[in-house]
Amino acid sequence: MEVLKDVFGELNGQAITSYTLRNDSGMEFTCIDYGCTITRIMVPDKNGVKENVVLGYDTLEEYLNYSPYFGCIIGRISGRIKNATFTLDDEAFTLAKNENENHLHGGDNGFHNVIWSSSVETKADEANIVFSYTSPDGEEGFPGNLKLQVTYSLNNENEIVISYQGVSDQKTIVNLTNHSYFNLSGNLKRTILAHELTLKSDGFLELDPSFIPTGKVLSVEDTVFDFRKGLQIVQGVNSEHPQIKLVGGGYDHPFLLNANHEQEITLVDYESGRKLEIETDEPCVVLYTGNSLEEGFTIGGVPSEKHLGLCLETQLPPNMINNPNFPSAVLEANEVYSTKTKYAFKLI
């Protein structure tokens, strides 16, 4: 295992550090301490050609000027909270409103815009980058001083594991995720429309016009939301299903997982031969197919366009704090928040 450290840029007089982890088979994984952002994952195709399979930039300025959460950690809460308000023990909390009247992805100054402390741990068959940050009481409206640790691990099995841990001194809510956009074609040669996704999920959450779950779980049976036996993304994008049209022609929906740590999420690009298997502790994954990616800028020299990447955000259901039927995001004072997601890169 090898770890390379470099300066990625400078923000407000503080250097932004880049870490590249390289395993014994040559797979590379690069991240920066700004937002715990994954900038590059280099894996081979069926011919042994190593290429980048995530959307990311080469400069800090590009992340600052335009990045729809490429590769970063989202928090304190991922997804949307309706009307940017919630109640804990009869006390109402008002959050930052950064998407119309709602709260999105932790607010404008969420964890994606934080410079995290970082350190390196290396072992014979594994390398870790450990990121730390304390979110102060009241940040973006959330209660409690929340001490966080996010660890990115790369092993010799071509697996990346993201581990999240946190402790708050007050009762609060927490729901973290990573917002990487995957494209297994390699170096963004094609869109993700021909990618085939398999999900162990019988139900997805209906969205209202603000893309917030209504609380209703819809069956995937006989719909373009049925990924249980595998489905190409293009079949959903071209559908007239009202939920597909609502989010701009594609998916931006939470799926409730039937299983954990049983290859419950699989993404395949048959042309390159690459396969991504995701296993998680979380009860839900949000599938977002880049419906709102705009034109007018480039990503690694490739013009941006709709459906250039897709996100598989493992988490609790969005707006869970305002929906008692969903798994709870409440973290009691001094309780440990802990969850883990593994990304295994393979060939078909």
From TrEMBL:
Keywords: Carbohydrate metabolism, Isomerase. The keyword Isomerase applies. It comes from the Bacteria. Its EC number is 5.1.3.3. Signal peptide: none annotated. It is an enzyme of class 5 (isomerase). It catalyses: alpha-D-glucose = beta-D-glucose. Pathway: Carbohydrate metabolism; hexose metabolism. One of its GO terms (molecular function) is isomerase activity. Belongs to the aldose epimerase family. PANTHER family: ALDOSE-1-EPIMERASE, GALACTOSE MUTAROTASE. This is Aldose 1-epimerase.
